[in-house]
Amino acid sequence: MAREIERKFLVTGEEWKKLADKQIHFAQGYLNDIQQPGSKSSVRIRIEGEQANINIKSLEIGLSRDEYEYPVDLDDAKKMLKTLCVGPVIEKIRYYVTFESHIWEIDVFLGDNEGLIVAEVELASEDEALQLPDWAAKEVTEIPRYYNISLSQRPYCNWSDDEKDN
């Protein structure tokens, strides 16, 4: 079992783009409805460029949670995204930026989530010190609506102006 420890931040400006090492198109969809009573995990299919995987995460919101990930045949993943997903498929471009010995993953969302840009950084421990780049704005690690599973159920385009500003 792996334990994912990551922090999430909203992104301001475009200075981070100059630092990006690479970018990859992502498409991901969820195979289960987390609104069902007793749900303890999300199960998603994700295509990253030309690779695919199935990912299972505990439904905890916050700094760390259980995560399991396994490769899946690309053609099988494409079929699952088209036929088995609960809710819409989330699409985004992920940029990788190295800053102060950490690799930041910056997701620029597309489609119904266009306009939302979120940076994630994985940590070795929950109490690891982290220097923030200028473009990392408000921390949203503890705010459920910024998680992909939430965006698949209630996209950014449906948020109120107050939700987008806070």
Per DSSP, what share of the residues sits in E-state strands of 2 or more residues? 35-45%
Biggest sheet overview: 8 strands, antiparallel, barrel
Major β-sheet strand ordering: 1-5-4-3-2-6-7-8
Look at the structure and name the CATH superfamily: Hypothetical Protein Pfu-838710-001
- What is the CATH T-level topology? Hypothetical Protein Pfu-838710-001
Q: State the domain count.
A: 1
Oligomeric state of shown chains? single chain
Q: Measured on Cα atoms, how large is the radius of gyration? A: 16 Å
Can you tell me the CATH class?
Mainly Beta
Structural shape: globular
Unreliably modeled segments: none
DSSP E strands, number: 9
Mean pLDDT across the residues is 93
Helix content: 10-25%
In whole angstroms, the N-to-C terminal distance is 34 Å
**Number of helical regions:** 3
**What's the CATH architecture?**
Beta Barrel
Which keywords apply here?
mainly beta, single chain, 13% helix, 3 helices, Hypothetical Protein Pfu-838710-001, 166 residues
Would you kindly provide a written description of the structure presented here, covering whatever features stand out?
- This protein has three helices and nine strands, in the order E-E-E-E-E-H-E-E-E-E-H-H.
- The chain has about 170 residues and is mainly β.
- The protein has a single domain, classed as Hypothetical Protein Pfu-838710-001 (Beta Barrel), CATH 2.40.320.10.
- The chain has an eight-stranded antiparallel barrel with strand order 1-5-4-3-2-6-7-8.
- The longest helix has 10 residues, at about 75-85.
